[in-house]
Structures are given as C-alpha cells and as structure tokens.
Amino acid sequence: MYDQINADTLTKAGQFALSDIQLISYVSSAGANEPKKVSVRSSTIEINIYEDIFSKGLSGNIVVVDGQNIANHLPLTGFERIEFKLNTPGIGKGFDFTAITGHPMYIYKITGRSELTPRTQIYVLHFASKEVITNEQRKVTRSFTGTIDQIVLDVFRNELESKKTIIVEETKGARKYAPTGNRPYEFIDSVSKEAESGRFKNSGMFFYEDSTGFRFRSLENMLAITDGAARPVVARFEKKPRSVKGGTGMTNVVQEMQTVDGFLIQNQFDTIKNLRNGVYASRTIAHDLFNKTYTKIDYDYNTEFGNIYHTEHDGDGGKTDNKSIAPLINYNGKQFSDFPNGTLYLQSSTTNIHNDYEDAPKGTNMAKRLSQRLAFAAMQVSVDARGFTGLSCGDVVALEIPSYEPVGADNPLDNDPYMSGRYLVKSIRHKIDTAKDMHSMAISCIKDAVRVPYPEESVDTFTGRENADATNILQYELDDTLITEATDESNNGILS
C-alpha cells in the first residue's frame, strides 16, 4: 500500500483526514424521530484506534475536553454510538465509522473524568465494534454441520448479526458441532483451534477485525499467497535521519512514511519459555474413549519447520528449512527438539461421534498449532512510525534493525542479520493528536524465523563443560558440626 501513496495528495508524513465526530444518543430529539446528536470534533484532543490479530473486534477511545457538560446533557450512559471517518489522504483504505457508508462504533465506558477548570472537564470515552456488544448478549445453542469456515460465517451473520464484510479462508473436513451455550466469540474460538486450512499444512485459524472488515484465516495465509509464493511486504521500515532530500531539494514523503521514529526489541529469544510451552518439542497422548485405546505422538520442531511457511522464505518465495529460531546444535548428543517429555498434552475423543462427519483432527495438530503461535512470541519488535491507514494487522512488513558495530570494525554490518527481515504485523495502535495535527502508529511486529540462518554445530560444546565434582551435604550433619565447634572452649564465641 505504501507504493500507492500519491505525493501530490499526501504532502507530509503523519498527515490525516478526519471528519466530524458525532456522539449519537439513544434519546430522541424533542418532537422528532431522530436521535440526539452532538459534535465533539473541536473538543477531541486525542483519538486511539486498536486492531490486533488476537482481538475479535476493533476498539478505541477518544479524549474529550468538555466545556458544555455533554456528559449530562446528552447524556452519556454507555449506550451511545460514535461516528467519524479517518484515513490517510489519497488512500481509500481507512476507518469508516459512519452510518451512511460504514458502521458506527459503540460507546461502552467512560474513564478518567476529572476537572480541568471550574467550568471544564476532561474524560476518555471508550468504544468498540457492534459485534463486541452483540457477543455479550447472545449464546450459541443450535447445532452446525459443514466445513468450519461455513460454520464461522453462519455464526457471524446470524448470532452476531453482522452486516460487515468478512473475508474467509476455506477449510477442509466436514464437521458437526452441538454447542452448549457458548458466546459467539467463544464458539468461534473453539472451532478455530480445530480448523485445518484448505491450502496450507497448518493447524488453527485466526478471527479478527481490521479496517476492511472481519478476517478468518490461518497464519500461513498471512505469510503466503499460495504454495511457492510468499506474501509480498507492504512496507520497508528502517531507522535513519528524517528529511533527507537526497540532493533533489524535495522530501520523499514515501520514504518519510517508512522511516521509524523509534523501535524496541521486546523479545529476541526465550529458551526456557519455548521449552516449557512445547515450541521445540512436545508429546500428545490421544485417548480414544470408544475403543479404550491411547496413542503417543511426538512433535519435533526441527522436522516440522520446513513443512509450513514462516515469515522468512527461501529467497524465491518458497518454504525454508534452515532459518528457524532454534539452531541445529549438538546438545549432549541431542537436539533441543529431542525432549518431547518436557511438554505433555492430553486429547480425548471418540471415533465417528457424528456418523458421517469427520472428527476434529487429533495427534500433532494441537502441538503444531501451539508451537507455531508461541514461536512468534519469541521475536517481537515494537515500532513507532508515522500513521498510515493503508497498513493493517495481518500484513507482512520488512524491518531493518541496525547492527551496532564499533567504528572501524572489520567487515561492519549495516543491519542485524538475524533480527532484520520480514515481520508479521500483530497489532497497530493508531493515534491522532489533534493539537499537534499528527497521526502516528505503534506497531507490534512478530516473526518466527531469522533472515540469515544461525550457524550449525556438530561438535558437542556442552558435555564436560562444568565442574564434575558433585557434593552432597546433609543439613543436620552440617548443623551438628557447627554445634560441636561451638562447644569447643577455643571457639566458644560462635554462639554468642
């Protein structure tokens, strides 16, 4: 989307187009059938909009400086709607929260209400998508048959009663479910965990909302278009001086938009967490209630890595088998993926529970899904950049992390070879500062592979690398020795 920026329309990085902001009451105007409306555009000093692939709906808040006592005169009760439009100039993609062309958001909470002056107050109004409100009002009690993508679409249109656009990735397997009163989001969560992509070899799907509507898709669909075709990046972020005109006398607004204001490497690796959560290895005990049998299935990260798409590809858009976050090493004669007992899963099921319908996949599917998701938690970078409504969570971006080399070092690197590269956008916080007339973004980026493969090592550098003189000491014997020494006349000061 960054390549679609029109420099004639967008003249400054962080520029934004914001419509009027209206609060719509549940109370009708006197003598009319229309609800009361109040404009707070001139009173709003900050707007925040949040989107996240781990969140089921859009949410946000506005900070209002209220000198008209809107809180009491409207009044504000937690049953209001809010309408406005926000987009980057020249880009059609944006947030449309209006009733005519989009979908209003719903006010559900007010916080931080405090006095600024004797006649002015400030507070924060929190809003969320209508589906978030509807989810709290409904339960899913009817049975469903078909593929999981068809079932999710059915719940989305009927239980959630949503009119928004939804893009659905097809799944395989005819299933049947008889829910027992879960909320719609809870039910979608449960079936999403068991979904298998119709095109990729992953397990599990994501259900979330961005500025274009709702999405139901797999992690691999976010990373690749089809087999052999990695999804192209939509932005290339890097840290460099701003307003460098490059000898042309003109600021390149496209480059300015992709120049980050700052970044933080939140996580680069966490071996203990990965071992505990089964990222590298796990064992699933699958119990068949009908046949009274059980099967042990081991999950091996190193074996599975090359079977699915990751943030990094082989250079030609295909899968890679040597860019994992776990280097191949000789750890006391084994790999870190050779310890499945470190994480145990138990799955109980019964075959042919719904006659002709397929049972949810068992075995390594749960282990694969959890390993894939949790591997992304190991490498996270937060980026502060100028706001752009053309970017959404679930997009792929490139990020260049500086390599901090000393001056004059031999073969200095410009960028970190491991942390730089392709990232998946996990979440975005859009912030509008009306006082500074600035749109900024806080972007959370995650990845599950390294740009340059880690070095492999066949030599065992662990065995025999610690003191082998193990000593066992009994506490009571140690205490007795101290008492004996204390009663010795020459050491009678020990107990003083």
How would you briefly describe this protein structure?
The chain is α+β, with helices and mostly antiparallel strands. The protein has helices at 70-73, 130-135, 148-158, 184-194, 219-223, 253-257, 271-276, 301-304, 365-376, 475-487, and strands at residues 17-18, 22-28, 35-39, 44-52, 59-66, 81-83, 85-87, 94-96, 105-117, 120-128, 144-146, 166-168, 175-177, 206-210, 213-217, 224-226, 229-230, 236-238, 262-267, 281-288, 293-300, 344-349, 379-386, 396-400, 421-433, 438-447.
SSE inventory with pairings:
Elements: E1 17-18, E2 22-28, E3 35-39, E4 44-52, E5 59-66, H1 70-73, E6 81-83, E7 85-87, E8 94-96, E9 105-117, E10 120-128, H2 130-135, E11 144-146, H3 148-158, E12 166-168, E13 175-177, H4 184-194, E14 206-210, E15 213-217, H5 219-223, E16 224-226, E17 229-230, E18 236-238, H6 253-257, E19 262-267, H7 271-276, E20 281-288, E21 293-300, H8 301-304, E22 344-349, H9 365-376, E23 379-386, E24 396-400, E25 421-433, E26 438-447, H10 475-487
Parallel strand pairs: 12-15, 18-24, 20-22
Antiparallel strand pairs: 1-7, 2-3, 2-6, 4-5, 4-25, 5-10, 6-9, 7-8, 9-10, 11-13, 14-15, 16-17, 19-23, 20-21, 23-26, 24-25, 25-26
